[in-house]
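[Meeting: bench + compute handoff]

Bench side (C.D.) handed over the final construct sequence. Compute side (W.E.) agreed to return the predicted structure before the next meeting so the bench team could plan truncations. Sequence as handed over:
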Amino acid sequence: MKRYSLLLIALLFLFSCEQDFMDKNPLDQISNESFWNNEKDAIAAANGCYSDWWDMYYVIYMDCASDNCYNPFPWEGFQVQASGNATPSDAGQSFMGFSTITRCNSFLENISRPEMDESLRKRLTAEVRFLRAWDYFVKVTIYGDVPLVTQVLNPSEANVPRNPKADVVKFVLDELTAAAADLPASYSGPDVGRITKGAALSVKARMEIFEGKYVECAATCQQIMDLGYSLVPEYKNIFKLSNQDNSEVILDVQYNEGIGTTWVLGVLPPNSSGGWCSVNPTQSLVDSYECVDGKTIAESSVYNADEPYKNRDPRLEASIVYPGGLYEGAYFNPIDVNDPNGDYYAPYGRSKTGYNPRKYVDDLSDFPDIWDSGMNAIVIRYAEILLMYAESKIETNSIDDSVYDAIDEIRNRAGMPSVDRAVYNNQTTLRELIRRERRVELAMEGLRWFDICRWKIGEEVMDATVYGARLGTVDPANGALTLTDDRIEVETRVFQANKHYLWPIPQSVIDATPAITQNPNY
């Protein structure tokens, strides 16, 4: 919680971490014994557990591990994962650190000590149980079996093996169920942004749907739907700085200008607007958006391959800056190889696909400094709950009006027609629809990789060549396109089903903790 930075700084001094994998027994014993005295200490300790629990960086970059986006800069940690070239010694991003879990374990071992209001003690305990469960949720979905550590370890105890995935999943679900019971539905004032009942239930629903527990997920989603969340009327306004903490946000990472900010949004805009172009949407993602008649580009009579961005789902324009699109007062030109003033991809600093994200950075004038922003990172929003509810009902073949109503609520908000029930009238066609709807609604919000893994479609969508936009020219006066038959070819990826659904355990982790074994075929 960035709003509690002064208390957090004091706490992090106490909760110092070693450089190795397991962060063994990080508390100084004398400081720890003198710290847990009163309510203020307990609040400070809970705030310390919020530190780095998740980050805008992962929300923004995680789709680069999938077929949604391409990360052109290897040093940012996602290109090697998406390409299928990750190894234990070059593992890309690592989520095998245990500093958050260690802080949470320390809190839970000590929270009984201070003299304080019991209802506050119960609530803070639930918040921290959530944060620990979230960390395990991330680990178990990326690596499978992981060590399940629920207490602060002494150095002699720290060489622990991996626990079976099923045990970790059960732990996550049990913790989230318990936490939800003790959390409020909402907060006011400076406490806005702390973990709520809806947040705990939403991560529980994610864990359930990721594990194919569709009956349970539908029931959990129904609980969340009864809490009073609602969709923001206009899609692009979900991601505006002026509309933070809106009715759709269930869980986010809180930032605050002048106290705790994020630099990450600066990587999104085109080079011509001062950005880094670190996240490049792919042609595959662009093609997944339907046309305005509710049909795919392969089916629609209003789709024109020479004017490919016209007559499309409005979420395409709200999410992606494409060739000929108006952005920051100019028509985006990433496809003209002969225009020295354009945004064509050579050299560094320009999109390698011809596309840039527009989400979060629709209007750069919203930000006094895009590299020092107080924009919150949305982790879960209500639209995802509606989609999980509909998918769970589809997968159990319990298709009724509530399924169509949930999907239509999202589509209609975006300006798309309701589902054609004559076409999407069975489990097979509805499964195709809900997967496409989930992809475009939640594009570049960090979920696509996990969907690929749980649907087991990696061989289909990842073992392929990544393409970008067609080349040509953009009329600087009106954005009109003149396209050639040449298309940007970005890279060829490899995906092996017996290997790539799990990420490699970094070799540094195995070296520091020999009881940890490697994932198969790495």
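W.E. noted at the follow-up: The chain has 18 helices and ten strands. C.D. will use this when planning the next construct.
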